[in-house]
What we know:
It is a single chain. It contains 3 helices and 13 strands; from the N terminus they run ββββββββββαββαβα. By secondary structure, the chain is of the alpha/beta class. A 5-stranded parallel sheet has the order 3-6-9-12-13, covered by helices on one side. Strands 1-4-7-10 form a 4-stranded parallel sheet, with no helix packed on it. A 4-stranded parallel sheet has the order 2-5-8-11, with no helix packed on it. Helix 2 (176-181) links the parallel strand 12 and strand 13 (189-192). It is globular and about 50 Å long.
Amino acid sequence: MVGPKMGALYGPGKGVCPQGIPDRDCPKGGGSMYTCLDHDDGSDYYLDTRNVCVFAGMKNYIGQNKNWDSNLILYPEGAFSQNRSGMACVWTSMNMAGNATDLPRYKKGNSNPVCHNLEVYTNNTCVTHSEQPFEFDMFKAWDLKEHGPRNTTMPYTARNQHYIGIPFEFHGIWNHSEAMLHGVDVGGAVRPEMTVHEVEAATRRWLEL
Length: 209
């Protein structure tokens, strides 16, 4: 079970750096140390399953071929003040800076080169009060339409359960039913936000307590 790291050592402002030097000024307002499962900068071929994440979500940045399956993610917006990529239950970015000719599928004259991440996010349970479960930087609706949900700029999503305190919106364009019609999170469901007792019971089930 993982929660956000708070206090002088991990909160915004001055604190102890990872190398243990006590008087260093460490910028704590950004970075990715506040996500529960963080795969960064070219990480490849991971399976993350049956984790319980509290106040932090899951993150991929410029990596591929990873599976997030059957995890319980509780209130990732608890990391709001530390790291935007911890706000959603799952956040990915394939925003690769530099020379566009290095990107997969680059074609001369193509103003929209994209990189496909071949991620899989399935059978997870997301509980969120004020933020959307999915945040896919570089999401391209035209790319999803052209290549289908298993080969696009975002993870393949299916059969996830969303307990959410606000109306579900996929990138501000589709509700959950509409998203499923486009191949996003097929077999998933949206339900009212869990109560405290339901969260406790779900956590115990996940951890087999």
